[in-house]
Write a structure and sequence with these properties.
Strand content: 15-25%
Shape: globular
Strand order of the largest sheet: 2-1-3-4
Structural class: alpha+beta
Radius of gyration: 13 Å
Order of helices and strands: EHEHEEHH
CATH architecture: 3-Layer(aba) Sandwich
CATH superfamily: Glutaredoxin
Oligomer: single chain
Number of domains: 1
Number of strands: 4
Number of helices: 4
């Protein structure tokens, strides 16, 4: 499989996670598979961090919450939907 390397200094990717959340693990797996470097905020049991995440995500409190270039794209399902629709690479700045 060809893997494109994503330069996170061009398009920053951030993900809020819980350590054993299967959706968080799956979302990080897709990003890793694509060679995307990302900043992970593990918010296990940290209510202040969860509140900050929720504010950034328009009130959403579920994990993961993923931000690409500072914009909330939602969680794992939304990330995979972007991938299925061939929109994720463009959003990440990866050339096919």
């Amino acid at each position: 499989m060809n893997r494109s390397i994503h330069d996170s200094s061009i398009t920053p990717v951030e993900i809020y996670t819980w350590k054993f959340c299967p959706f968080c693990i799956r979302a990080k797996g897709l990003l890793n598979e694509k060679g995307v470097k990302f900043t992970e905020y593990s918010i296990d049991g940290d209510n202040n961090a969860r509140e900050k995440m929720s504010e950034r995500a328009g009130g959403l409190r579920t994990v993961p919450q993923i931000f690409i270039n500072g914009k909330s794209i939602g969680g794992c399902d939304e990330l995979y939907e972007l991938e299925r629709n061939n929109a994720l690479n463009k959003l990440l700045g990866i050339s096919n």
